[in-house]
Design a protein that fits this description.
The chain is mostly beta strands. The chain has helices spanning about 1-20, 165-170; strands spanning about 30-35, 40, 50-55, 65-70, 70-75, 85, 90-95, 100-110, 115-120, 125-135, 140, 145-155, 170-175, 190-200, 200-205, 215-225, 225-235, 245-255, 255. Strand 17 (about 225-235) and strand 18 (about 245-255) form a beta hairpin. The longest helix is centred in the first third of the chain and has 19 residues, at about 1-20. InterPro entries: Ig-like_dom (IPR007110), Ig-like_dom_sf (IPR036179), Ig-like_fold (IPR013783), Ig_sub (IPR003599), Ig_V-set (IPR013106). It holds the Pfam family V-set.
Amino acid sequence: MALKYHMCLLGLIFLASLLTGSSGVDDTHVFISSGENVRLPCNNALHDCNSTTWIYNRFTHSAAVELIGLGIKKTDTERHERLSLGSDCSLNIKNVTKEDYGSYSCQQWMGLQGQQKQQGADARVFLHVLHVSSSSSQTQISAGHSVTLSCQLYSYSYAGVSCDVWIRSERIELFWVNQASVKKQTRSDSRYQISAPDHCLITLNTTLLNEDDNREWRCEVTQRDQVKTSVTYTVKSSAQDDTVSPVIPVHTTKSTTMRPAASTQGTLQKNELQPLCFTESSFVIT
């Protein structure tokens, strides 16, 4: 019981930190699907970007990686070819992967070369990546074979607080939705089996039929009933051999900024914090 209380308290401290930021600059939370391009805003930019530095952390205690230094892109990082600095000092990432999730901090440094001092506070952006994968590695899947689609939300881990805790407290839910955009609340039926090992992962298992040509399965992530991003997985059958082939997922993306005192749609207020360690996931089948 004491351990459960401690985890809940730790989660609340984590959420308060995310909402208020460490020094008055609002943190931004961006939800994106893998394969998309994303823009991370720099909310403390000065008159030009020569003072701008972008720092990346995947986990709280992971080593910080400098992506942009004083307006110049670093070329010694694995993903430097996918990065660029916008005219407004935003960080642009092409073809986002699930490994891109984490915390991005925009900093401003001024002064003579070698004597720069940081100006103001970090402007943090938390990037949450939704990714769908298939259990089959085959190019074509024959009708009659079983396939499992896994939809996972990759989010920054703070001080040991898991993605599961973050999702529970912020009323973030993962759904599988049918082609008519209907969300059913049962976990399975005669054709589809839905399971959720935790709140950050939801799977759909089905046996493919010939009638599944052009069938779409869409995974959505919502926060307080507002869709943040989604991934659609489509299969197409071949008339010659009655097989189906996975098609590159189609993405729909939104982002949101959480501000402590705001009351507009898509924002989260401090007084909206919910008790942790409860709230069941929702399950959707077609």
